[in-house]
Every structure is written in structure tokens, then in C-alpha cells.
Known about the structure:
Chain A has eight helices and no strands. Chain A is mostly helical. The longest helix of chain A is centred in the last third of the chain and has 34 residues. Chain B is mainly α. Chain B has one domain: MetI-like fold. Chain B contains nine helices and no strands. The relative contact order of chain B is 0.15. The C terminus of chain B is likely disordered. At the A-B interface, helix 2, helix 3, helix 4, helix 6 and helix 7 of A face helix 3, helix 4, helix 7, helix 8 and helix 9 of B.
Amino acid sequence: MDFDFAGITPHLPAFVQGAFVTLGVSIPGALLGIVVGLVLVAGQRAPIAPVRWASSTYVSFIRGTPLLVQIFFVYYALPGLFGFNIPAYFAGVLALCLNSGAFVTEILRAGLSSLPLGQWDAAKSVGLSRYKTWRFVILPQLFYRILPPLTNEFTMVVKATPLLSVITVVEITRTAQHVMNETFRPVEAFVVAAIFYFVMLFSLSRATRKLETWAEAYRA
Amino acid sequence: MSFDFQLIYESWPLFVKGIAVTIFISLISISVSFFIGVAVALMRLTEKRIPVLIAVSYIELIRNTPFLIQVYIAFFVLPAVGIRMEAMTAGIVCLAVYGGAYFAENIRGAILAIPRGQEEAAKALGLSYWKIQRKVIFPQMLGYLIPTTTNLTLSLIKDTAILSVITVPELTYMAQVMIGEAFAPVEGFTVIALMYWGLNSIVAAAARKWEYHSCRHLRVNADSSEKVVVAVLPETR
Lengths: 220, 237
């Protein structure tokens, strides 16, 4: 078996462009995922029982079904349900953020429950308002606790983006498929794609570890 | 908007076949990947340069590349080096190798989580090597091992869906066949989503029961489900 990466080099710009599309779906996907997660956390603490049930069911459903099926559902089934077509890119971002939200909920919930209840009591006893309690006492502490797991969640989102190639989002994996069809060199094309992903994901996971030690130091 | 139950009823055999294949693939590849995980974790803990290097590069390579890319590479590379496999076999191999890297880290974490003093204390009491492992180390490891293994199992069951891209006839592939024939994406994807959800819920409930029974010794007191050992669950998809 012989490798021939020379045939692949002219396509490197296409891979770089694919890498930008990968980031272009994962960054909005992850950010909107945080919004979805916030809504779900609020829903799980809502005073109305059906709202609590709905958000818990949503989290359980998303965590219990494959992302690939969720992507298919958003891209192929939602247009049938609502009667309008969604471009592949937006379907991808939508699927990612709906999925990521369920995982962010757990991060936020764990972060909130790791704060001692005494923090709220202490804030109240020094006469802080509800807004000031959140702004100066809870959120700063929460931030350092959830930043490392949120970075990890972003890594997970990036790692999930190749699945969007099945609904024709031209990110790294789809680019590799195009290159394979042009050069008839599948192995080289996917190895190059793997290298691109490895560089992105490895640096992200290293950054997460750095953040963890940094947050640990802040807390101590 | 209409939901065609008749259609679902007619394609029922397809879905049953699909979930049977999904369960079959999951069972084999998850058991194999557990053993790969044990072997690689022990390799990584040897403190000898070459085995550690092999173990670390395997773990980092697999964990830092997407599963879909690994599946494609295996699907195209293996025939190129003369290994011909059916899609199903290739899928099982991929999933086992993928899961092995995650199991290795979980098992290593469980081993490292037991303080060395436990082993030393047991030795001081005159217990033999195997008695120490069986009566002292292993029961304490369970508190870490069961939750992480459960999480990983659930996420590997979900990852079997990705094998549909290399035409493994599991549940997602069957849904695509049914949708291709009847053009009913809403019905098809809803049914398989519910089936995956059901399967995962059953596995999760069984695991919770198992954990409840086998971690009795780790509880704060007999009635509480609160454990002395609190494992950190990895958030995996």
C-alpha cells in the first residue's frame, strides 16, 4: 500500500475552508446551546410542575437518542411538520444547539448545586438585593466552576460536527469526501481530515485542562 | 401535518430487525472494548516507557478524532491493506477500538482513585495478593467503575447509529430504508428516536439497580442512596 499525499496538497485550501465551516457551525451551536441550557435549568426549577416535567423529559430524550437521528430529524422531518425548508447550515446549528443544551443543563445544575447554600443566606444577611446577590456573589463563583466543563462541552460539539456532513454541510468531513471523489484517494483525504480534527480537538482538550488547574487555583 | 400510524405498523419488521442488530453490535463491541480498556489501562500504569507511549498515543489519537472519521478511515484503509471485512464486522471493530480508549481512561481513573494506604493496610493485616485485590481494592473500585461504565455504555449504544453511514443494517439504517421506500421522514425518525430512548432508558435503569445493589458497602448508611465515594461522571455524547 502506498501513500501519496502529493495529490492531496492542491486541496489543502479547501480543507482550511472546511475547518472554518466546522468552527462556523460549532461556535454558534455551542453559544446557543448555553442559552438552551439556561432556559432548561430555569424550567427544571420552575414553580409549575408541567414545565418541570417538560424540561426533564427534553433533557432525558436528547441524552437518550443518537445525535445523528436528531440531525436527521431536524433536517428531514421538521420541514414536513412545519412546511418550510431549512438550509443545511441552519439545520446543523439548530441540531447542535438543541443537543448541546441538554448537556449544558447538567453542567449548570451541577455548578449551582456545588455552591454552598450559605452563600445565599450570607448575601441576604448583609442586605444584598436579589440582583446584587446574583451579580456579585453567585455568578462570579459559578463562572469559575462551569468554565472548564463548558470548554469541554465545546470540544464535544466540535467533535460532533462531522455528523453534519450527512446533511451536506461542507465542513472538514464533507470536504474530505469531495476530495476523495476527485482524487480517488480516500485514505489520504480522511487522514488529512483526521489531522485537522486532531489539532483542533487536542488543543481544545489541553486548554480545558489548563483552565481546570487555573479554576482550581482561584477557588483555593 | 399527519402522522401515518398505518405505515409504522406495516414497517414494524424492519424496525425490529434494526434494533436487534443495534443490540447485537452494542453487546459485542462494548464487551470487547471493556477488555481493551483494562489492557490499555494496565499498560499505561506500568511506568515503562514503551508500553506507556503506546497506550497514551492510542488513547489520545482515538479520543481526539471524531468517530465518523475513524469509521471512514477503517472502511477505506483496511481494504487498501488487504483486509476485507463485511460492513458489520468493520463496524464492530471500529466501535470496540473507539470505546476501548474511553474505557482505558475510566478504568485507570478508578484504579488511581483507591488510596495506596488501602493496599498497604491490607498487606499489614497479612492478606494475600489476590485477597487484597478481591476484598479490598475491587469493591471500592466499583463505586467509580459502575457509573462511568454506564455512561460510556449509553453513549456507545448511541454511537452505533453512526455505523449506518457504512451500510451496517442497524436501526438508523433501517429507518432510512423505510423512509426511502415510503417517504415518511417524520414517522420513521420519530419511531427510531423513541426506540433508542427506550433502549437507553432500560439500560440506564438496569445499571442503576446494579449500582444500588453492588455499592451497598459504600453508602453513608443503610437507608440512604448517598455514596461515600462520589464518582465524577464524564459528559459524553
